[in-house]
Amino acid sequence: MKYTKYPVGPYNIHIINTDKFKTVSMKINFRRKIIKEELTIRRLLVEILTESSRKYPTQRDLIIALEDLYNLKLSQSIKLDGTYSVISFMAQFLNEKYTEKGMLEKSILFLFDIIFDPDFENGKFKESNLKKAKNRLIEIIKENEKDPTFYANSRMVKIMGAKEPYSFSVNGYIEEIDNINTTNLTKYYKQVLHSDIVDIFIIGNVDPKNIKAIIQKNFGINTIKKQGENPFYEHQKFRKRARKQKEDYDSYQTKLVIGAKIAPLTDFERKYVAFVYNFILGGSPDSKLFRTVREQHSLCYSISSRIRILQNLLIINAGIDKENIEKTVRLIRKEMNSILKGIFEDSDIEKAKINFKNFLQETMDDPYSIIRYYVEQEYYNFDLIETRIKKIDEVDRQKVIEFAKKIHVDTIFALEGGKSK
Amino acid sequence: MKVSEFDRIDLKLYYDKLDNGLEVYIVPKQNVNNIYVTFTTKFGSKHLEFIPAGGKKKIKVPEGVAHFLEHKIFEQEDGKDPFAFFSERGADINASTSNHKTTYHFSSPNNFEENLEFLLDLVQSPYFTDQNVEKEKGIIEQEIKMYQDKPNYVLYEKTLYNCIVKHPIRIPIAGTIDSINKITKEDLYKCYNTFYHPSNMFIVVTGNVEPNHVLEIIKKNQEKKKFPKQTEKIKIREYNEPDKVYKEKEIIHMNVGIPKLANAYKFNITNFKDFSKRTIIDFFMLYFDIKVGNTSKLNEALKQEQIINENLDYALVKLETHIIMIIFANTTCPEKLVEKLRSEISNFDIDETEFNRKKKRFISSYIYLSDNIYRINGKIISNIINEGKVITNDYEEIQNLKFEDLKSFFKNISFENNNYVIINPPK
User: Fold this and answer.
1) Are residues B209 and B302 in the same domain?
2) Which residues contact B69 (CB under 8 A, 6 or more apart)?
3) ipTM of the complex
4) What is the residue range of B271's domain?
5) Residue from the list B108, B256, B297 with its beta carbon closest to the beta carbon of A358
6) Could you say which DSSP state residue A294 is in?
7) Which CATH number fits the domain A243-417, given the four candidates 2.30.30.30, 3.40.50.2300, 3.30.830.10, 3.30.1050.10?
8) Catalytic pick from B70, B75, B241, B354?
9) pLDDT tens, A40-60?
10) Domain A2-218 in this protein, CATH class
């Protein structure tokens, strides 16, 4: 596997040449600092771009074209990663070897068309397409609100800090959708092309020089950008006592969500200790939370913790019965405190390390995981795999305890289901 | 070991059957780090009435017992926690139960031999007590409630229930809170002794392994264990499933933003001697994809008319004697949509270009699959469960699908046995 980066100016090209896969996978990222007022229009832009294009004016035409490209897999995502909003356009397609000559270039150009050649009328997005994109977005937002886990988590972060980017909705806000028209959407689209930081990642059995030439000839961005800034969100205020809130919901199960803020971390803590801590607390079926809350007390089927490293948040989720809220919270806090007091085995640390190393090895088996690995290096200054495998061994008991001291439980939210069977 | 080759994807299948009846399938893939192992019993939620091992009379076990048993396999007599064992070695272990089978699986790039042996021993040394069975009821009750809060899941479940009259696929895989509370350790042992015999199970290993080495580990492990001789096939109740649906229409209320619709079509497939069940399934998938998939004219028109905003979706469910195709949609006018779907589905007017394009897509999907050890493994399991053997000539099979055959097949198909379920927001 060979990685080459070409910082050509307006954007970076990252090419990973490997004969591991029968596919070529490509990911194009556009990122900029999160601005709350932009979220709805930004989300709508992604929706409208990937629905159709000038050459393929309906979604049906577009999907037929994908099938003709031997089932090219087109996808898109938009995420709030720390202080940045990242839009990704992705295409995965079979290597020419398994289809026909010329398909590599055709497939790459197809993805470029999605980004650069939308179905415009008089220099603007079409009214009818915007209407459809709006309807879909409204449906997505409404569906999410009716998903108890999603809703409980978004409520929890809003209680924690409604004005902070970690609580913003990546899908935007229904009440803002009406304000978006073809004029301001087109203007925003041009802004994105002009000023977002752009990275192109390609992995497969390809000739880097050839790929670079295809991109430079066809990728329509030529404005030089500043480099990115700190992507990590740092919390300013920490609560002494956690805030508790409840809300009734029309469901059988109660969703308990506990959110904790993590005080500023060292580079090492972020890259290594966080993984070990979370693994011990609630990151696996062999974790403290799983063993205690599920196996010993039969209180839940699902319980887990995760650390959102870019937001410096620790979030715990459990699905329980309403009458067990207090008991579950008590057990969870007890387990968190036990790590703080050093009540865990050295073997717990060892397990976490082995899992970390195996996870890295598995990462190298999947094209998009490999791309993510290079994204992490590019955006978050993560280490090379060889370094990571060595450095994780430097995590010890004391470092885990130091990390635990930086965790401040902030918000305990219960979405109370009350329906009986 | 018998070796065969998967057509056009540079992969080989190694196969052997051990003396105790256990079947082993291995697909080595040297250019990945990881190894994925699955251990499957042909025992799923639909196996509710059967003659237990050593018995003479048919018994009926509580609904959800296969899934309950899956949970309890993780209990060990020496109190060792299997999750701890695998996590010490950096492996992920889990299990899943479907209508047709239960699978235990782990993946890890390292400690392969130890992990494999542990998995075999774990599944082959049941330890059920009144106490540990009781303890699990609270956990599974929460699992059932979690699903009961998911509208898409409830919609699927209700539609199947109303479509099927007798076959136990109509019952949720996990059972109900009432049924699981009736389960005893005796039920679990009866099921275990009947369905977890090696001759009713198979192992599939995909990833960075050497086939002979894998077989040797399994053989050595199995030789250490004694199993009763299994001479007869397990007798499982067969269901004389009617062609009619159980209930044609139902409206339920749940916490949804936009109403949800499922429209299911039930087809008897026992009368088509010219085509294999596999070909028939391909025909249905092709037909529904062309008719209501995201390249269909109907889908585009419905969006244009704002009857739907997102694409229609569809799924296929297999019974021994029937195929059920279910179409799903979020829509503000569900009843109107049902009418449109019914009229579109029963009208065969597709052209050959579309048919050929879909074939091209099927073939591409097959090549995509071959890059991923989880998907290769899953394909093998599903072939064994559905076909009783691994299919290695998928490429040829797809190429051989003929438009004329599809046309003549659908000439004799009736679409009249269908039903629908709507989920509306709370009143």
Assistant:
1) no
2) B43, B102, B188, B191, B192
3) 0.92
4) 249-424
5) B108
6) I
7) 3.30.830.10
8) B70
9) 999 999 999 999 999 999 999
10) alpha beta
